[in-house]
Write a structure and sequence with these properties.
With 220 residues, this protein is mainly alpha-helical. It has 6 helices and 3 strands, in the order H-E-E-E-H-H-H-H-H. The termini are far apart.
């Protein structure tokens, strides 16, 4: 008697129960947050605040020269340390360098350039007729120097970029303005340099604190 041929079809085992369907791969969620981890709307909101501070510091500097401090011929002055004095708007003038850097950090390079053009126009428009051209040209040159120094440095050294670019802009701003306005450098330059340098150095400390958080970690 012949034995039945072995089946060529493997027997199916049901010991482990029916085969479970393969799990679907997890769905990726689209994120509206930039590389810093913050929503884009929050990042731009902070940039708008920085831009308001930037514009306000330009307007405030012109107002302070006429209203705050010890009155002198055609202006007011404030002490800046080391026995020196400078026009009362010197502190807010230094703040414009720091504020523009932060606006660029949050909103990007193009917005940083637009801020320079708007700032120069405001500086020209708000200044007295006698120094309007000197003020506008000086602002354009100094902020452009700030931009050129700050932009390549900010990716790796945000605080140093703020300080380095601000100090360069401080020198350019002070020397060019005093020269165009016909004010002797020996009389007014030291106070101008020192007054704005204080604000720039404080801005560097603030930048060192901000770079640890949210949208300030990386440039836009």
């Amino acid at each position: 008697m012949r034995e039945p041929a072995a089946s060529l079809v493997p027997e199916r085992s049901y010991a482990a129960g029916p085969t479970a369907p393969a799990a679907a791969p997890p769905r990726r969620r689209l994120s509206l947050a930039p590389s810093g981890g913050w929503p884009q709307g929050a990042r731009l909101g902070l940039a708008a605040i920085g831009f308001a501070i930037y514009v306000g510091s330009i307007a405030g500097a012109n107002w302070m020269i006429s209203h705050v401090g010890r009155p002198v011929a055609g202006a007011h002055v404030l002490p800046v340390g080391f026995g020196l004095e400078a026009p009362s708007g010197v502190y807010l003038a230094g703040l414009t360098f720091v504020a523009r850097d932060i606006v660029q950090r949050l909103a990007g390079l193009r917005v940083g350039v637009v801020a320079i053009v708007i700032g120069a126009t405001l500086s020209w428009w708000l200044s007295s007729p006698a120094i309007a051209v000197a003020s506008g040209v000086t602002f354009l040159l100094s902020e452009s120097c700030d931009f050129l120094v700050y932009t390549p440095l900010q990716t790796r050294h945000f605080p140093y970029a703020v300080v380095g670019s601000g100090l360069v802009a401080d020198v350019v701003d002070s020397v060019v303005f005093l020269t165009l306005a016909g004010i002797p450098l020996a009389v007014a330059l030291p106070g101008q340099l020192v007054g704005k340098a204080w604000v720039v150095l404080i801005g560097g400390v603030v930048a060192g604190f901000l770079r640890r958080y949210g949208p300030f970690k990386k440039p836009a």
